[in-house]
């Protein structure tokens, strides 16, 4: 069936993305909705200085530019202030004390109000709030390090800090609030008297944020809110939420202080949910609920989607940081069990498969550490970090899933499913981050879209517009008429291609980057650099192959995206490990980089690969690892000795 292009003069010319969607089989409505998301993305970009926008981000530069500063992929060193260190140390002591005393949870198996208050007194909830509003003004690097440390004690408590500070009301108010709004809301958010959440998801709106149904209508000096939110973490009575709703059909954000009990205009939708079971996760129902008009956040550009997108990158880094801590817990539990459990008269820590699991898990931990520090550093420097934080989120959540199922559960066997076991009690929490802050494959396509956007706009959008104007539905360069029509944009593209072929790509090398890296780590750096530099040709070739139908080739986009993500993770991890003095940490980085390279080139593990990872596992099993210092593994369940 042919697809006709409406060329009536009254119809505005569509963007290349909309044309691509339509010719790929999508409806005009889907193309229009995608255009709304594109507009919101552009508005977020405009919030950042030009040198920190996506086209100047490390990943974009690595793929498309001819000269790439290698140091863009190496985290900047930083030391937290004494005040921040004090807050973190007190907070860790509070959770450790409550955990050891058995008072971390209340009688509903939720994090107790006493723990939340104690953490508020310690300054935990105000880490990301500026000092002038009652917080401690921590950097994102400080905050991410804290998340990893806290997750080794309790991932839920660590996750609540992220919900409150990154995607809850803290970030929207501090980034987009007026001075009056900051004065009214931030002190309570900082001291924990008003814990927060971000109410975005609805029963019919998840990934497609254009499907929002909740509305707010101005009535005098108040907005009247009607609608329903679903799967809102940290949402219960007395909390402060950032509510995404439509005002005059424009996505907007209201800061809403929830009442202390249900009313005719506000109800809580309760349901049983397995993930984050120790936190409050509820639906919120508003029926003619009134909110002061002064509580509406007005961004300098854009609308409520701009505000929503801003905090997600912080949350994505925090998810990776949390995974690094949770996987440390898993490894600390695996080691005593591997020494205790015997098969055929020998502890399983002597078995090659178990040693491989231990070594591989250490590699995943170092990979998450590297991405966390790198992305947090970029955010602190002022980068938008959209693509980089997506990489951290996907790698962190997928690594935690793999660690939980393939490494941790299989090593512990049937005991994994006992009540009181780290896996059995937390399996849903270990898997759920694959969905949080954007489902992984959907984010992978968003990553790809951000990566190709400028290239497509510069070279492929003129082609698309020409085809649109000429009414050519199925372009064929063997057709002289088509070739003549496209001569202008094709010439521009040929110039880019030829120049890139002649000039190539050059990466800087500095003594700071490579000062302590082993030869193997440097080889990983060089491979990743070469792969990323060649990726521009691969991507552009794919765009030529699928042309306007690329938008409908989700599987191809996802596969290309993942390969580039793997190369970036490999580069960042190798550079990170080059700064570490601990030989086990460097060996763990080598392990995960070998695995990432195999995924990229499609190789099977060699005997040398098996030997490297099992020797690492043996070292950790026999001598420990300083990254596990201070962790207290639980008792072995159902002991038999």
Give the arrangement of secondary structure elements.
Blueprint lengths: L15 H8 L4 H18 L12 H7 L2 E2 L13 H20 L11 H10 L17 H12 L3 H13 L2 H7 L2 H13 L4 E4 L15 E5 L2 E12 L6 E8 L2 E8 L8 E4 L11 E12 L3 E2 L6 H37 L1 E2 L2 E2 L4 H30 L4 H27 L9 H10 L8 H31 L9 H6 L1 H17 L2 E2 L3 H4 L4 H28 L7 H25 L4 H19 L5 H17 L18
Parallel strand pairs: 1-12, 2-5
Antiparallel strand pairs: 3-4, 4-8, 5-6, 6-9, 7-8, 10-11
Helix pairs in contact: 1-2, 1-14, 2-10, 3-18, 4-5, 4-6, 6-7, 6-10, 6-11, 7-10, 8-10, 10-11, 10-12, 11-12, 11-19, 11-20, 11-21, 12-13, 12-14, 14-16, 14-19, 18-19, 18-20, 19-20, 20-21
Structural class: alpha+beta
- Structural domains: how many: 4
Show unreliable segments: 1-16
Strand order of the main beta sheet, please? 2-5-6-9
Total beta-strand segments = 12
* Main pleated sheet: 4 strands, mixed
What value does the Rg take, in angstroms?
Answer: 26 Å
Q: Tell me the distance between the termini.
A: 72 Å
Q: Roughly how much helix do the residues carry, as a percent range?
A: 55-70%
Question: Could you characterize the architecture of this molecule?
Answer:
This protein has 641 residues and is an alpha+beta fold. It has four domains: 52-71 and 444-594, no CATH class; 82-191, Butyryl-Coa Dehydrogenase, subunit A, domain 1, CATH 1.10.540; 196-297, Beta Barrel (Butyryl-CoA Dehydrogenase, subunit A, domain 2), CATH 2.40.110; 306-440 and 606-626, Butyryl-CoA Dehydrogenase, subunit A, domain 3. It has helices at residues 16-23, 28-45, 58-64, 82-101, 113-122, 140-151, 155-167, 170-176, 179-191, 304-340, 352-381, 386-412, 422-431, 440-470, 480-485, 487-503, 511-514, 519-546, 554-578, 583-601, 607-623, and strands at 67-68, 196-199, 215-219, 222-233, 240-247, 250-257, 266-269, 281-292, 296-297, 342-343, 346-347, 506-507. The strands form four sheets. It has a four-stranded mixed sheet, covered by helices on one side. It has a four-stranded antiparallel sheet with strand order 3-4-8-7, with no helix packed on it. Helix 14 packs across helix 16 (487-503). The longest helix is centred in the middle third of the chain and has 37 residues, at 304-340.
